[in-house]
Design brief:
Length: about 900
Amino acid sequence: MDFRKRFVRRTAVLISIIALLSISAPRSERFSLTNSMAVSASVLEPGRDADGGTGSPGARVDWALKHQPLAFVENRGQVDSRVAFYATGGRTTLYFTTQGLTFALAPKRDADSSEGVAAKRWTARLDFIDAHRDTRPVGEVQAPTVVSYFKGSRDQWKTGLRTFSKIRYSDLWPGIDLIYSGAENELKYEFRVKPGADPSMIKWAYSGALVSLDGGGNLQINTPIGGFRDQAPYSYQERDGQRSEVATSFRVQPGSTTAEARCGFDVGSYDRSRPLVIDPAVIAYAGYIGGTFVDTAFGIAVDSAGAAYVTGYTESFPTDNFPLTVGPGLSFNLNKSFLFWTAFVAKIKPDGSGLEYCGYIDGAGHQLGSAIAVDSAGAAYVTGFTTSGPTTFPVTVGPSLTFASGTQYIGDAFVAKVKPDGTGLEYCGYIGGQGEDAGYGIAVDSQGNAYVTGETTSPGPGQAGAVVPFPAKVGPSLTNAGAPGFKAPDAFIVKVKADGTGLAYGGFIGGTGLDQGLGVAVDQAGSAYVTGVTSSAPAGFSGLAVGPSLTLGGGTDAFVAKVKPDGSGLNYCGYIGGAGDDEGLGIAVDNAGNAYVTGETSSDQTTFPVKVGPMLSYGGTNGHLGDAFVAKVNPIGSALVFCGYVGGSGGDAGYRIAVDSGGSAYIAGSTTSSQATFPVTGASGRAAVYGGGTIFGDGFVAKIDSSGSTILYAGYLGGASDDAAAGIAVDSGGNVYVAGGTMSSEATFPATVGPFLHYQPGVFGESDAFVAKLTGLPQPAPDFSLSFTQPIINTSPGSKVNVTMNIARTGGFTDAVTISPPSTLPRGLKIGLDSTPTTDTGLNFKIKVKGSAESGADQLVFTGMDSSGRLSHAVTLTLNVQ
């Protein structure tokens, strides 16, 4: 390699940081994982190779069958009567009895030899010590799956056997319950210690296995044909909705033989008048994606099967051990004149053991994949920017096949749809004009329309100097407010038609200052939600209206905007910020239309609009090292439901955010704050200890409850060197998927399962991309919340209004809810709602507006209450009588 190429590659490490800052990570980036006391994925895959190889068709079927939610099947005589429940996953069957657990382990069958066929099964046993011998586990949460066995004569058939996702041993030791639950190919357990009970009574022993503690405090259990690991325990107590950690570690005492070691816990001091929970979070997998030069992931998405999709950029050629598999592109263009960046896209197997596909999206210029989304068919949608023209960039179909230029650094935004099997592109095209255009966020709706946001210095159609204008059509604004100089970009939002042939709409969001769209989400009605950063004052900000704030607080503020489904304008647009600099970097939306924003702020609590939480005090230093923030915007955009900090005394930033069906928010970010000041919650082992790094520090993952008042989980994800967490996604089961870049080797990075377990640093110590899956994060307390599908309704006297109220249940809450109408009503209104308790997810009722109703906006407050009377929530409906 000549000196010039080595110089470009070496300096690209720094340039990649600049690129990351301009996309959505304005400061350091890194992450640290969640260690826990749970059986990781390998417990159900004894003897599996480190690379998870599944070459034969039979092996692929085996992996597909294993990737099912672990369910506990009731025993009604189909197995030994001592067994209450059993669960099967991979090559392991687990039997739950009053005495303990039995692990029936099958050897791995090697596709290339018959050795595995001849090998014997192995049985290991976990016995409860000094426990109540008559405690039989009981199923708690019934799963929808039923199992039937048609074996022998008809009278021996066992049909309609119930399965459960959770079972409980009650008072296994005095005042101590043991709960087992199952996720995909994983067994998780927790102890609940009641007030006054003694956790030192918890003891168990393994027979048929060798037990040891590793350097991270994890319990290693090994057998001749495979093993598994119980990750270091984490304990906590709750008071007033806040968790406090209790120091806990495994204790291992030799038995009569090394294969009969007795295990228990050493628990630090805690309030024995309150319950104690030993509750793990699980690293299902974590591993590298990359070659021997710079590789970084910026975005991640997940499909319904649990497969993760990652995009980013790489400088690793195929000969640099980049893991090319299937496509969409397998060739790296070596004729680049400036930077050796190329975009990549990869699909990770649901179990994390390897790649379904991985390939380049490349041209003769440089390009970067900044965000990714996935549809129900498994097609991935990628956006970013490129300086490659159509003769080398893989343009096909659209939305535009013409490269409109730019600079040697950015060029045009691009959008590409990758076929579900990864073999090629359904469409790929440019979005841009004569200036610099870059795509930073992407979302996809149920119809396959893609929504892209980013920044552009290109003029709109008909503006002065518009030789090649930005393809603005419909709106929300057709004028780039940076005109005539265009030195400061405007944010843009476009909707790409499902077939990729063009734009349904496209337009600008911004003012005369700097405006960048950094994140986008879309709701079920097709409304797009955009966040970013702006320095534009209200006077010149196009579409600024409603809120949450209409005043620019500092040098830059975060902004949040909701775009009408047809793109013709904005439903709302406002600032989130204080006297310092603030940036919105990621956005998500829930089913009720609440928008969740994360980012970075250097504004302290005297000017930043803190409300509820999760943290109300700024922890940054001298206004230079900021805090991450998280905010929830109500459905009409008029106010913040909550807004608060997540951070410590170092520099902290939230880069991306996801939200689950219960309204819990998940943040991926970075921090240089150690565990002394960072709000570590629910994390143990490496995840609870700051790893370090000279530039980025550690990344973090945080989970915030739907009220915004409680941090359910916060932990690091990374190793001893610099690590960056830039993307996050969550599936329907609450499993969390994180992607980014790392310079930490497998000696300290928590690589487990894959896709690849070995760091490839290259000659200059370049980064590898990484992907990780976290399961078992703490759940919110059982609760419910109320919302209206249409929180604002316009009507007139003499009409009837159909109203839909949504009732969301979280934390396992299943109780009936009684909805009560307002105690007093404005004249002329009648609400057809009774007070019958309901277990449904919503209520439909009518409001009759009589002819005598007065004009104006009425705020109607409805309340909901559970049967115990302890949980009560209110929701407001605005009725505009015109």
